[in-house]
Design goal:
The chain has 2 helices and 5 strands; from the N terminus they run H-E-E-E-E-E-H. By secondary structure, the chain is α+β, with helices and mostly antiparallel strands. It has 2 domains: 86 residues; 39 residues, no CATH class. Helix 1 packs antiparallel against helix 2. The longest helix has 37 residues. Keywords: Bacterial flagellum, Cell projection, Cilium, Flagellum.
Length: 142
């Protein structure tokens, strides 16, 4: 059943990636009165789960208790936020500057496409494994 665990953990990870990207895109044009208050892009950090996989290496037995993708956290971008001189803006500071988000819309769109395709691939793996298991069970009926 580990193929289902792997595929579902991959789907969950890509769903989090899609949600994070959507949040970044929603805040691409937000502004703030301070650099500290400006929205900063966020990216999830993933790690492979391979607990007990090394213990079964070479034995031909799959005793892995946890396999798949684990979310280690969400990192906030440390890139500089853009500063624009707009003295008439209601959110301008005393010097006339506003601070925008450091989200790059082009990078986020590419990230969204990549996450969507990865999610779709994991869903296809899940469906293919299910079909193969059902066909294997049907072999025993004949």
């Amino acid at each position: 059943m580990s193929i289902f665990d792997i595929a579902s953990s991959g789907m969950n990870a890509q769903m989090l990636r899609l949600n994070t990207t959507a949040s970044n895109m929603a805040n691409v044009d937000t502004v703030s009165t301070t650099a500290e208050g400006a929205y900063r892009a966020r990216q999830p950090v993933f790690a492979a789960m391979m607990a007990n996989a090394n213990a079964s290496a070479g034995t031909g037995i799959n005793n892995a208790t946890q396999v798949g993708v684990q979310v280690d956290g969400i990192e906030t971008s440390q890139a500089e936020v853009p500063k624009r001189y707009l003295p008439g803006h209601p959110m301008a500071d005393k010097d006339g500057y506003i601070f925008g988000s450091n989200v790059n819309a082009v990078e986020e769109m590419a990230n969204m496409i990549s996450a969507s395709r990865a999610y779709q691939s994991n869903a296809e793996i899940f469906a293919t494994a299910k079909t193969l298991m059902l066909r294997t069970l049907q072999l025993g009926q004949q």
